[in-house]
Write a structure and sequence with these properties.
The protein is of the alpha+beta class. It contains 17 helices and 20 strands. It has helices at 4-16, 57-69, 76-83, 101-113, 142-165, 167-170, 215-222, 279-292, 304-317, 328-341, 348-360, 363-367, 371-382, 388-398, 403-406, 411-414, 440-450; strands spanning 28-31, 37-43, 51-56, 88-94, 124-130, 137-138, 181-188, 191-198, 229-236, 253-259, 269-271, 298-301, 320-323, 417-425, 428-435, 459-462, 473-475, 502-507, 513-523, 531-536. Strand 2 and strand 3 (51-56) form a beta hairpin. The chain is globular.
């Protein structure tokens, strides 16, 4: 099953405890026996998952970049797909119950022959192959085993050199979007030679873009009656399918179609050929519409994958496409599906273990935490689901400011207030009085209450008064790429507001409700809670 060489190197690597020296973003490259370049990531710095990941070639490196960027604030189903994005080989260390009986017996056989005791936590080596959209599977291929052996040898060498010289001397640094090169290890005549290798540029995510070439079916679709607005999304199904027991199970793609009024959900169309033959999903979608004898007048979608799949199909079928920020009908259907399948969030115990490990790190270890890990913990603190005492302790150790602390602005800031006119159309406005110590998020909530809107969409403030400007914009918390400009992190007294200052507030990136804001007065007085001080006109119907 596995070569003795692979087991030998795995046990030697485990003894190095390299995961205590490197963070997972401090990668190095190794020249593999077949001429490919492999990129190695060492996992386990906070004890969550001890493993060596080998990402082969540009394709593997791009998958690592996706993993490094993190999932952001996404749905449960999207997070599941994020976990399936890896393209790598792994040597991990697991407890016995994490392996198959075949794997346990293979490890025990090698251990018996070499007088190795398999005791303690995570004692068993686990060799796994990750492929995008597939369940992690046994490392059966001999070439993959040789590649992983080369990576383990290189990791053992890295551990020895780090102990002697330190990371900085070896050029091992945390990788980010600006990283141009990493250390390269190449074995020559039994000895590793160190150099550096330039990283290939990050490749954009590519989705299948099929052409709908069935002229007869397209003509039939054009004859169908139109039937209102429907929400549509392509999703990776969370349950794998397996046709051949010898091959890794595959997570198929489904196309969900839900009426905008949420009164009808059509049977999801499933394709096990999406990655190789995306036309299969289009044919099934066409058959569904012909069976139901209608075509949507409008399809609301929210992601590029769905757009590129349906773009040509909809053009030929006479179906209009609209990009929207939110798809409530789809979200409700997905939630129901996930509940039915029993796909759950991480258990409280697993979260508690991670937090305990973090609290156990000393100051030196904490100071070297990679940015992506700090961001993940910052997201946990932002959710305000932890007890205040634990939140404060974690924030203190990581030198992060909690949302609750950010509300404690300097006393003088709370002694100043603003009266802001917020208008959504001619003859309809609200004057809102609000403290200078309140955040833009507080102003957003006040506007929502003032106009009796359902606070259920993303939003942004454009302080230069130009819609979609990038110069001085602040966004709803939780929008991953705009975390540094979160509306919850900036109070009004940080924004140089003065009487006459105008800015725009945009709510719902799909329907784009634009509110014109203008500072009417600056008051030297305290305002405990935002309050509406003048009302003019009836608010518009949101839906």
């Amino acid at each position: 099953m596995f070569s003795d060489k692979l087991f030998e190197l795995a046990f030697i690597y485990k003894k190095t405890k390299l995961w205590k020296m490197l963070w997972d973003s401090e990668i190095f490259a190794v020249s593999l026996p077949d001429g490919e370049i492999g990129y190695c990531s060492i996992m386990g710095a906070i004890g969550e998952h001890c493993a060596l990941g080998l990402y082969v070639g540009e394709k593997g490196l791009n998958s690592f970049r996706i993993v490094l960027s993190g999932p952001g604030m996404v749905s449960e189903l999207n997070y599941h797909e994020f976990l399936l994005s890896q393209d790598c080989l792994q040597c991990a260390f697991e407890n016995r119950d994490g392996l198959t009986e075949e794997e346990v017996e293979a490890a025990r056989d090698y251990a018996r022959r070499n007088r190795i005791a398999l005791r303690g936590r995570n004692a068993f080596p686990h060799f796994v192959k990750f492929r995008p959209s597939y369940m992690p599977w046994f490392l059966r291929d001999e070439q993959d085993q040789r590649r992983l052996c080369a990576a383990l040898e290189a990791a053992i060498e890295v551990a020895a050199q780090v102990e002697q010289k330190g990371k900085a001397a070896l050029g091992l640094e945390q990788m980010n979007e600006d990283t141009a090169s990493v250390p390269l290890l190449e074995k020559r005549n039994g000895t590793f030679v160190w150099s550096r290798i330039d990283l290939p540029p990050a490749a954009p995510v590519q989705y299948p873009q099929p052409q709908f070439i069935n002229d007869i079916t397209a003509a039939k679709l054009l004859q169908l009656k139109k039937n209102g607005m429907w929400e549509c999304q392509v999703l990776r199904f969370p349950e794998p399918m397996q046709e051949d027991p010898a091959c890794a199970p595959y997570f198929p793609v489904i196309l969900m179609l839900v009426s905008g009024s949420m009164d009808e959900i059509l049977p999801p169309q499933v394709s096990q050929k999406y990655d190789e033959e995306p036309e299969d999903l289009l044919e099934k979608f066409a058959d569904l519409l012909l069976e139901r004898q209608f075509r949507p007048a409008l399809l609301s979608i929210r992601d590029e994958r769905t757009h590129v799949l349906l773009k040509d199909f909809c053009a030929r079928a006479g179906i209009r496409i609209r990009m929207c920020e939110d798809l409530p009908a789809i979200d409700e259907a997905v939630e129901s599906l996930m509940s039915h399948l029993g796909v759950n969030d991480p258990t409280p115990d697993s979260v508690a273990e991670i937090l305990d490990m973090l609290l156990s790190l000393d100051d030196a270890e904490l100071s070297n935490l990679p940015d992506e890990i700090r961001q993940q913990f910052a997201s946990i603190l932002e959710q305000e689901n932890l007890p205040d005492e634990l939140t404060d302790e974690l924030a203190g150790k990581l030198h992060l400011q909690t949302r609750r602390e950010r509300r404690l602005w300097p006393e003088e800031w709370r002694q100043q207030s603003y009266v802001i006119s917020v208008s959504c159309r001619k003859g309809c406005y609200r004057h809102i009085q609000i403290s200078g110590g309140n955040t833009l998020e507080d102003l957003h909530n006040a506007i929502q209450d003032a106009f009796a809107f359902d606070n259920d969409h993303a939003y942004a403030f454009f302080m230069d008064n130009c819609q979609w400007s990038k110069r001085d914009a602040y966004y709803a918390p939780g929008i991953g790429q705009f975390d540094e400009r979160s509306a919850g992190d900036f109070c009004l007294n940080q924004l140089d507001l003065e009487a006459g200052k105008q800015f725009k507030y945009l709510f719902d990136f799909g329907d784009e409700w634009v509110f014109q804001c203008r500072v009417l007065r600056v008051l030297e007085e305290q305002t405990e809670q935002p309050a509406v001080v003048r009302v003019q006109g009836e608010p518009p119907e949101q839906y």
